[in-house]
Amino acid sequence: MADDDAETDPSFQGEVTATRVTAAKSTFEQYYANLASETDARRARGVKLEEKMDAKQMNEEEKETRRQELKLRESEFLRIRRTRLCNADFDVLKTIGRGAFGEVKLVQKKDTGQIFAMKILRKADMLEKDQIAHVKAERDVLVKADVKWVVKMLYSFQDQDNLYLVMEFLAGGDMMTMLIRMDTFDEETTKFYIGETILAIDSIHQLGFIHRDIKPDNLLLDERGHVKLSDFGLCTGLKEAHRTEFYRGLQAQGKKGDVRKMDSRQKALSWSKNRRHMAFSTVGTPDYIAPEVFVQNGYDKSCDYWSLGVIMFEMLVGYPPFCSDSPQETYRKVMNWKETLVLPPEATISMESENLIRQLCTHAETRIGRSDVMEIKKHPFFDKFDWENVYTQKAPIDVKVKSIDDTDNFDKFNDLDDSDLDDRSPASDKDWVWYNYTYKRFEGMNTVAPGQKGSVIKRRPTAKAAMENARAAALVKKDDGADSTEIPTNDQDDVAVDKPGSDQTVIVGEDDRQPGV
After folding, report:
1. At 311, is the pLDDT very low, low, confident or very high (cuts 50, 70, 90)?
2. DSSP letter, residue 137
3. Cα(461)–Cα(467) distance, rounded to whole angstroms?
4. 331: enclosing H helix or E strand
5. How far apart are CA 137 and CA 244, in angstroms?
6. For site-directed labelling of 402, which of 8, 166, 244, 345 has its Cα 20 to 30 A away?
């Protein structure tokens, strides 16, 4: 009876109607935004093809052949986009990251053997912690930011309990790992990585986004040791401003009390001990956040350059300038940066380095780079720095990647058993907030135009299958009394793939089948 009364109550009916209107509005907006984005991307691929053909000075007949090939590939891509992608399409190899709201796993796509990093977020946690806007922002940014300085997302999808982001796997690890290993960088190494980070930050600023969470954890390194920006969960600049309640608890927590005094050596030891733990906590560390973001009186893209200054300090000194034993103490130091931004007496850095740090970590109104990134590029610290060709240069740190699925540059995590998993399911009436979350990138489809003469790819077995085959072979050899173990080849995994303009059967090596990223 009570339920019947609630359903007939005008205020209840008004809330239900408002929710439905909001859901419909969000769904249509996202649908047409995706449609426009896909149309723009298709047009851009056509323009890129024309530019490549002009550069190669192809004749008109060759150009028309290439245009028809792209047209067929686009048709095949549209067909594949309509297929449903799910978690079962991937083999999980190992866990390479774990945070407050989910995990990052190394996975292999079953049908192609491609290696990816899969970020898994629990819907129930996203709803409970009011992270919906942040999660949708991250997905939207990764769709739009198709640039070399940003980690590339190939797919996004969902099931009843989780959201999934499938991204290129960057085997070099992250900058935090390198700082933990090396303690400090010399100025040339610092210049290289700060320079690449500036280009990465500017690339998202040009797209209209502010990252707001620039820190070493989010600077990933590819197999060549070059920087790619990741983790856009706190990014803003999309359809509406994303809320910043995430930081407000720091101002209310804890009493001011006495601050424990530490010399530079104690700071370094404390930072090294607690750094990784803080990265995995719910609150995280506010060491890299600009003071204007905390007070929420308005901020612009220059808040990312404050974070850059803090990272530069850490690279040269060994710890960030505001590190403390607790987030609350760090927050107070950040807000009082005029007194707490102090270089230790034993730090031997150039005047140009110190000047740039102080021009980055200063008032937002006078911060270098606020008007134009060229202000930073022209700073004396970057004298003779090759901005145009830095990505093609050899990186100063050799990340030592042995294979495409090498995880030596990542922390080791134990896989969770069923008893550790959260069995909560998100409320079904809130599921509309995740509408249109699914995405597939053209480069990730590995599609080939149909209707042409085929060639054959000699596909290696998946990593999971290879390990199972190796174990089976070892048992057979043991029974036969043999001393060696062989991994049998998986010849039945040969795949016919179209090869334009050829009647030949060609075996394509593994290096030719890597993800289109």
Report:
1. very high
2. H
3. 9
4. helix 327-335
5. 13
6. 166
Tell which residue, 363, 240, 339, 233, has the closest CA to residue 290.
363
pTM over 0.70: no
Cα→Cα distances 271→132, 183, 281, Å: 31, 11, 15
pLDDT, tens digit, for every residue of 375-429?
Answer: 999 999 999 999 999 999 999 999 888 888 888 888 887 766 544 555 555 555 4
96: DSSP letter: E
Question: What ranges in 175-290 are assigned the alpha helix state H?
Answer: 175-182, 187-205, 249-252, 264-280
Say if residues 236 and 209 touch (Cβ distance below 8 Å): yes
Residues facing residue 167 across a β-bridge: 117, 153
- Cα–Cα distance, 458 to 465 (Å, whole number): 15
Q: Do β-strands 102-109 and 90-98 pair in parallel, antiparallel, or remain unpaired?
A: antiparallel
Residue 458 confidence class, pLDDT cut points 50, 70, 90: very low
User: Cβ of 456: how many Cβ atoms within 10 Å?
Assistant: 15
In angstroms, the CA 354 to CA 365 distance is: 19
Helix (H, G, I), strand (E, B) or coil at 440: strand
Question: Residue 339 corresponds to which tokens in the numbers above?
Answer: 């007194």
Q: Is residue 227 very low, low, confident or very high in pLDDT (cuts 50, 70, 90)?
A: very high
Contact 307, 289 (CB under 8 A): yes
Other CB atoms within 10 Å distance of the CB of residue 49: 15
Quote the CA–CA distance of 281 and 297 in Å, as a whole number.
26
CA distances from 483 to 1, 473, 488 (A): 77, 12, 16
Give which of 205, 184, 180, 215 is closest to 308, Cα–Cα: 215
Give 94-142 as a DSSP string.
Answer: EEEEE-SSEEEEEEEETTT--EEEEEEEEHHHHHHTT-HHHHHHHHHHH
Nearest to 304 by CA among 214, 191, 369, 202: 214
Determine the Cα–Cα distance for residues 423 and 418; give it in Å rounded to an integer: 9
What is the rounded average pLDDT of the residues 282-296? Answer: 77
**Closest residue by Cα to residue 193 from 372, 289, 315, 319:** 315
Total residue count of the chain as it appears in this document: 517
Report the candidate in 417, 398, 446, 387 with the shortest Cα–Cα distance to residue 112: 446
Q: What's the N-to-C CA distance of the chain in angstroms?
A: 59
